[in-house]
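Translate structure to sequence.
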């Protein structure tokens, strides 16, 4: 369970021919999109998140009591999609999210089937959620960092940061874990900062409007896996072991990615796609426990904390073993 920082390994993964497992996973994901399009008139919740995005592009920042909580620099994309027939726009949007996750799997070295055929992927697709594109943006950021393409990495940050709690936090982790100088990190941030500033010019006051909506109408956290729900601010302690223990850099990044799902006040189960894109092996199949929602309701989704918690413990295990082995010599 480790993440390679070698651009040659990443290049080989990106140029590798599709395996049968990857082909099946992609076909399954796109097939599910076709099913959702066909069944959309019979499913009241189909396209729900996607409709929120399209409404926001028209200046309506709420839809059926739900609000737009994302970066306004994405609104031109949603405005363009809103000009298309709804099913076509949804198909293009879903395709971009599927390809974003597949790209992330190739970049980070995860298992395509565990990510693309996961409960998180299908849940995200039926709602038309942005999670797959956020993960794709994080992968683009990491590709740019490893290959020292600062403008590409910056574009990845701009895309990923459209969802603040996942994309912006994830981007900061990638920037901090990359083997680059602080000067290079500032170069990376040039592109997203320019895009953020441009959004403030095009949509003046959007940041204040977003903050007001967050205060007046907090996001629904029924599907959040974060342990903050039970531990409160004590959950922040999950950040410390990955930062303090002696770990191989790739393993440290995986541990920090898992810590995101445990320590942040709000972390939707669909955001686990970021972790599923990482090289965590078949542990990712734990995400499919979400299907128990049909029996246990929202509690089943909250219990998906078992996935980041398992990855977290296994990632830190070598660090703890090394620590305990070194203890007698210091006595």
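Result:
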């Amino acid at each position: 369970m480790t993440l390679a920082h070698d651009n040659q390994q990443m290049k080989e993964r990106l140029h590798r021919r599709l395996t049968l497992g990857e082909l099946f996973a992609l076909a399954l994901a796109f097939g599910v999109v076709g099913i959702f399009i066909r069944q959309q008139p019979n499913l009241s919740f189909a396209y729900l998140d996607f409709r929120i995005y399209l409404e926001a592009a028209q200046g309506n920042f709420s839809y059926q009591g739900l609000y737009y909580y994302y970066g306004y620099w994405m609104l031109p994309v949603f405005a363009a999609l809103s000009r298309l027939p709804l099913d076509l726009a949804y198909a293009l949007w879903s395709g971009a999210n599927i390809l974003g996750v597949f790209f992330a799997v190739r970049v980070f070295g995860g298992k395509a089937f565990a990510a693309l055929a996961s409960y998180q992927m299908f849940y995200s697709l039926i709602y038309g959620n942005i999670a797959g594109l956020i993960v794709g943006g994080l992968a683009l950021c990491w590709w740019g960092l490893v290959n020292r393409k600062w403008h590409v990495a910056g574009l990845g940050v701009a895309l990923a940061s459209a969802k603040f709690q996942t994309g912006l936090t994830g981007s900061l982790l990638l920037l901090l874990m990359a083997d680059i100088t602080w000067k290079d990190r500032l170069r990376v941030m040039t592109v997203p900062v320019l895009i953020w500033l441009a959004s403030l010019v095009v949509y003046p006051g959007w940041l204040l409007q977003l903050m007001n909506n967050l205060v007046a109408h907090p996001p629904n956290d029924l599907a959040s896996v974060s342990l903050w729900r039970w531990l409160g601010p004590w959950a922040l302690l999950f950040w410390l072991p990955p930062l303090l223990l002696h770990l191989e850099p790739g393993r440290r990044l995986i541990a920090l990615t898992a810590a995101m799902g445990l320590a942040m006040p709000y972390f939707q189960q669909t955001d686990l796609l970021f972790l599923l894109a990482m090289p965590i092996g078949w542990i990712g199949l734990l995400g499919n426990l979400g299907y128990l929602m049909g029996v246990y309701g929202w509690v089943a989704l909250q219990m998906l904390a078992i996935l980041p918690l398992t990855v977290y413990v296994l990632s830190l295990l070598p660090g703890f073993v090394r620590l305990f082995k070194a203890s007698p010599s210091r006595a």
